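Hi support team,

I'm filing this because I wasn't sure whether my run with flavin-adenine dinucleotide finished correctly. The job status page said complete, but I'd like someone to confirm that the output block is well-formed before I use it downstream. Pasting the exact inputs I used:
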Amino acid sequence: MKKNNVIVIGSGISGLLSALALSREGKKVVILEKESYIGGVCRSYDVSDYRVDTGPHAITRLENGPLKELMDRYFNRVPQFIPFGKYYVKIGSEIKPFPWSINAWLTFGLLPMTDRLLLMRALFNILYLKNAGKDFSNISLSEILPHKVSMTTRRFLDWLCYFMVGTSIENAPISRFVDNKTHHPRTIPYVGKLYDLFITEGATDQGYPKGGLQSIVSSIVESFPKDSVEIKTNEPVKKIECSERVEGVITSEDSYDCDTVVYSGFSSDLPCLIDGLPVAYTQNLTSIKRVNSLTIWLGLTKKLFNNYGSEIWVDSDPYAWVVPTSNYDSSLAPKGNQLVGFAFTLPGEYNASTIRNKAFQTIVDNMPDIEKHIDMIHYQELIPEKASWGINCGFGDVRTPIKNLYCVGTDTTKRSAGVNRSAYSVLKFLDIIKSDGNL
Ligand SMILES: Cc1cc2nc3c(=O)[nH]c(=O)nc-3n(C[C@H](O)[C@H](O)[C@H](O)COP(=O)(O)OP(=O)(O)OC[C@H]3O[C@@H](n4cnc5c(N)ncnc54)[C@H](O)[C@@H]3O)c2cc1C
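And here is everything the job wrote out:
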């Protein structure tokens, strides 16, 4: 057995950020990754002459979010982020910028005026009740939706739920949209996401990393202190040996001794890796629902997406988020060509080939001309979030019943989403491990 300070299981963004923070705090770290590559679902690779990411990404909260905090604290070199631009909503053949402010909402002609007024009233009712102490964590958005709203408005909100929560309007809790604190906590304590959607100018602190998602991973790896972090790929962890504490980690290749383990795989897999976990803990983990997604990357011989920003396709089935990444960085596609990612959130159960055909068909239905410009097509089925924040779904935690075992990743904290949720989990982990006296 090899003796190490910390074993980090998994080299996704949460595992890599944990390893960086721990090594900067003086620990010796070994990262064990089951795949032949690092980065998990936050990386890039080449397909023909295009550089695709693991799904299209907007990196959010770059001015004051958790990733920014970790970058400021631990990165030697921060990736260069290019402004993400507007989110355009496409309904039918019309396309308009996402209505972030009240003014834009009131003039947002893609949805009927009566629906917009009804929804504003519903929003302010929620905020009023929230301030009065009402708990909205088990009430779905569909439950408070005025009955009279049109199918288009309902689809628009359903799209938002899939995009922000990974589940449908029937299963998305209202608290996901209103629990976040506003930038003005003293004046209006409980106003959060929806407030931001309606009142502020919207997503001005979002970016796309120049060179693709891989540049974030490269910046982390370059920031590891010399000789402090060892990365071992093709090393799937098969067992975490524990009594009251973790005693060792066994992979298909080797076994490792350590003081602390940070696990960044699926929390729902822990019962297969550890014997004798408490029943209630295991039951919660097994009720976690993962979010599934399909991305279709198209390399196009002509620039068909001219707007600077991404498009939300409300009419498509399944719903689509369309991001022409080469508009941010032209080096991602051959000269004169365009690289576009079409991300679809998928229902729990699906047949892979049926959904691929359906998703491709919805692209063609929306843009009949596109087929004759396709130079490259590439499909990715990936899990963007390890836990959906749905009503009656389980959710993991950073803390585990084992004293020196911690979890990080998108199934360990509910705050934010995607990369920033991973970053929040790492900040939470650092606070906990410090308070435990293990750092
Ligand atoms: C289509 C798509 C679009 C997205 N869009 C955005 C976006 O716009 N903005 C945003 O912020 N985020 C977005 N995300 C989400 C974001 O990429 C992820 O939330 C984040 O990268 C998850 O990081 P993680 O470390 O928690 O998990 P993962 O990346 O899943 O990492 C877990 C790692 O652990 C390894 N592992 C698991 N089990 C074991 C084991 N037993 N032994 C060894 N290794 C193991 C896995 O191989 C993997 O490398 C998107 C994701 C997708 C797929």
